Amino acid sequence: MDLFIPSRVFFEPGALEYPLGRQLYDLMESKGIPIRITPSHNRVLGIPGDTPQIAYREAKRTLVVGVKKTLKLNTCRPSADYEFALGTSCPGGCQYCYLATTLGRKPYIRIYVNVDEILAAVEAYIEKHHPDITHFEAASTSDPLAVEHLTGSLQKTIAFFGRQEYGRLRVVTKFANVDGLLELNHRGHTKFRFSINSAFAINTFEAKTPSLTERLGAAGKMAAAGYPLGFIIAPLFLYEDWQADYRQLLEDLAAWIQPHQPSSLSFELISHRFTARAKKIILERFPQTKLKMEEGSRKLKWGKYGYGKYVYPPDQLETLKNWFTQEINRLFPKAEIEYFT
Ligand code: SF4
User: Fold this and answer.
1) Would you say the CB of residue 285 lies under 6 angstroms from ligand 1?
2) 67-340 adopts what CATH topology?
3) Would you say residue 132 has pLDDT above 80?
4) H or E element at residue 306
5) How far apart are CA 224 and CA 158, in angstroms?
6) Ligand 1 centre and the CA of 172: distance in Å?
7) How many CA atoms are closer than 13 Å to the CA of 38, on its beta-carbon side?
8) 59 lines ligand 1 (CB under 6 A)
9) 93 C-alpha to center of ligand 1: Å?
C-alpha cells in the first residue's frame, strides 16, 4: 500500500520554530503540496467539503502540523498506565473508527512537532512512579505508524524508551511501514501490537488500510527485530459466519507464527460498541454501511464520562469471550490474553 501523502497541509506558525516543522514545510513545498498557515491546530478553516461524505474524505487527505501545548497525560486503562499523543487521527478509512467520530466533522490528520517536549513530560511521569515500571500507550489518539515516513517521531520515541529503565511503550497499528524501526536499540521496551480482524471486517469496513498479509509481514519483521509483539483483534463483530471467519483468521495467524516465533505473544480482544453520536456520524458519512448498529439488540452501558455505549448483551459477550479464549488457548498455548472488553 502506498504511503500517505496529503493533498494539502496547514501549519501553525509555532510549528515552524521546531526542526521537524521546518523539515515538513520544506518537504511539502518541494512536492508542490498546497500549504496554508492556521492560527490554531485545533480550529482549522479551509478544508473543503459541504456534505458529511466529502468533508470526511477531504479531512482524511489533510495534514495539520502543530505544537502540543497540554502536556498533562491521561490514564489509559486497560492497555497502559498513561497515554500520550504524537498526533491525532490517521489516513485510514475504517467506518467504525472511534477516533473518526470523536474528532468532529473533519477528522484531519494532525501531527505534533514538539516531540522532545512530549517525551520530557513522559520522563517526568516515569520519575514520579520510579521504581515502579510505568507503561505508556502512544496510539490511543492516532495511528502514528501511518505518518512515520513523514515524521520519524516513532523512531525517536522508541529510542527514548530504549534508554528508560522504568518506562515501557506500547504502540498499536494497522499500518506496515516498519522498516525504519528495525535497527533501533529498543531493548525490548516497546511492544508493538498489530490490529487485525476477519477478512469480512477488513474488506467491508477498513478502507485505506494495509491488507492482513501486509500487517502480518510487518509483524514478522518486528518479531525478527526482537520487539515484544501482540495482536489486537478489534472490533469483534457478531455476524452470521463470525466463527468460521475468526477461526480462519486465527489459523492464518498460527501458520504465520511457526516461522517467526516471536519472543512473546499477547492478545487484546475488544468487542464492537457504538455511541448514539457515533452512529449518527457514521450513517451520515457512510449511508450504505453494513455496520450493524441497532440499539434494540445491544445493551446500553454508561461510561465514566457520562455517555452511553451500546455493547453486545451479556450472553453474547460471554459467547464471544469463551470462544476466543478457547481458540487462542488451543492455537497459541503460550500466548497471554491481556483482556477482553
Ligand atoms: Fe481509525 Fe485505526 Fe482505522 Fe485509522 S487505522 S481509521 S485510527 S481504526
Assistant:
1) no
2) pyruvate-formate lyase- activating enzyme (3.80.30)
3) yes
4) none
5) 16
6) 10
7) 21
8) no
9) 7
Tell me, in angstroms, the distance from the centre of ligand 1 to residue 143's CA. 7
Percent of the chain with pLDDT over 70: 100
Please tell me if the CB atom of residue 64 comes closer than 6 angstroms to any atom of ligand 1. no
- CB of 92 sitting under 6 A from ligand 1: yes
Residue 259: pLDDT over 90: no
Domain ranges of the chain: 67-340
**Separation of CA 165 and ligand 1 centre (Å):** 31
CA separation for the pair 316, 305 (Å, rounded): 25
Residue 263, pLDDT > 90, answer no
Q: Write b or e for each residue in 283-309: b if 16 or more Cβ atoms lie within 10 A of its Cβ, otherwise e.
A: eebbeeeebebeeeebbeeeeeeeeeb
* CA-closest residue to ligand 1 atom 1: 97
Instruction: Dump pLDDT digits (tens) for 50-102.
Output: 999 999 999 999 999 999 999 999 999 888 999 999 999 999 999 999 988 89
The model's pLDDT over 239-254, given as tens digits with 9 standing for 90+, comes to: 999 999 999 999 999 9
**What does the chain come to in residues?**
341
**Ligand 1 nearest atom to the CA of residue 96, by list position:** 8
Number of alpha carbons in the 13 Å side-chain half-sphere of residue 50: 0
| Cell representation of residue 23 | 523539515
Ligand 1 pocket member 83 (CB < 6 A): no
Pocket test for ligand 1, best of 141, 174, 197 (most atoms within 8 A of CB): 174
Instruction: Tell me how far apart the alpha carbons of residues 185 and 227 are, in angstroms, rounded to a whole number.
Output: 10
Q: In angstroms, rounded to a whole number, what is the distance separating the alpha carbons of residues 339 and 110?
A: 30
- Is the Cβ atom of 282 under 6 angstroms away from ligand 1? no
Cβ distance 189 to 177 under 8 Å?
A: no
